[in-house]
Automatic annotation (TrEMBL):
Name this polypeptide is given: S41 family peptidase
Ranges where the PDZ domain occurs: 94-164
Biological source species: Chitinophaga horti
Keyword Ribonucleoprotein: no
Keyword Chaperone listed: no
The entry's keywords: Hydrolase, Protease, Serine protease, Signal
Amino acid sequence: MRKRNKLIAISLLLLSLGITAFSDNDKYFQIAKNLDIFAAFYRELNTYYVDDLPADKLMQRGIEAMLEETDPYTDFVSEDNLDDLKFMATGKYGGVGVSIFTRGDSTAITDVYEGSPMHRAGIRAGDIILSLDGKSVKGWQQEDISRVLKGAPGTPMTMTVRHPLNKSEKTVKIQREEIAVRPVSFSGIVKNDVGYIRMTQFTENSGRLVQEAFEKLKATNPTLKGVILDLRGNPGGLLEEAVVVSNIFIDKNKLIVSTKGKVKSWDREYKTLQQPVDVQVPLVVLTSRTSASAAEIVAGAVQDLDRGVVIGQRSFGKGLVQTTRPLPYNAKLKVTTAKYYTPSGRCIQAIDYSHRNEDGEAESVPDSLRKSFATVAGRPVKDGGGIEPDDKTEPTILSQVAITLLRKQYIFDYVTQYVYAHPKSPAIGEFRLSEAEFDDFVRYLDGKDYSYKTRSEEALEAFSATARREQYYEAVSKEFDALQAKMKHDKKQDLLKHKTEIRQLLEEEIMNRHYLQKGRIETGLAWDNDVLEAVSVLQQPTKYQALLVVAKK
């Protein structure tokens, strides 16, 4: 009788919402039925199971199991993790403005943010953290130290650090502040009147900051030949900010992006609202495999409206829009509510989460199913797999030896010694490590463990395992051993083989110590292949125009 009354109540509720069809097969009935079963199941389990069960842990696992049926961007955000959600939207957090790295029992400062409390307190990269608020951090995990460094703005903190070379100690007292990660990490002239703006995320007011950077470039360089908007590695963020950034270069009342989802009343078109800053300056947008979401909205609009040229690698392919919904006890549901579409009408979502293979894995949209669309000028563009550049470049892939030197912090440690031995700051763009100094770095590595396997060695090992499993190994064992011996790498020879790459990493780290992030970025631009290709295109108007037409053929 009670269940009958409950079903009648649910039926009346659904009728009030305009849902007239109701049967055992109706999904709303299935929801009500299974919620009833779930509640009864948990009540019985909790009452009669032999041991006590942690309610919060069980429910968390239930939520996680439900989320496995969705996409990676739909998530439950507990009250304890709301700061992470806020940071994604604002780029701000409470803290002291440093990055750290823990190795064994020792934790070092690796980066200091310009203008932060730690910067003003004289803390430098390479300093070793000994204690926080009087408590030794020896043996602490990196996450635990990071958690203490963060905190509400205005709260005090005491930290004792040790000099990396002379071992002297000092204690600083500082107050945590609101640290804003700059969405525009660098802007300037890269070469021959070509402007450059690097944008790292789409957070609150990021569009205004990009506009300010561009206006400054124009004001100080009247003969500006073009501008590069670098969105490589930009994971996206606020959709509205993508529209603002696009509006800097695209005329008023132009469609930038539209969203379509299950709730039709939420479908929207986003158009530029303001007069643009400049619709004539030649524009290049740089993308990479990790350019996603709002970054792809900008790149897609620039491409579809034929406003500029996209250079780099195919972008990530995230064409999904998330909305936050309130839950009880200050929790939030971050849920995918729509897909977004570029001005030509294409959705560039690369993975179809609504269809999964037998193993439950979502798969990428195959190229054969990608549909063609057209830009304003008629150039063909495709959906379903990110933004394809108009001018494709090969991604820069670090060698295994370079990756190992970075991962084991040998480049970092050597540079710490180097900058104290060479305290005078060299001019950005002019500094180069000498042959003798590189040789000194090679000597520094003597006796240090930076062993690694090359990709070729890893492939050879995989082949060996497969051959043994399929019982072919004995037949090819002699040839395999000979090939393995021939391919065996010499670490010191690898240092020389990849000398240019390692030297560049050393130079970037040295300039980071003298000029912080600005020094690292500006130094790296000198050998950045994507940037060099963009400069070449912008310095040749015929080449630039050809890229906007070639795809028609």
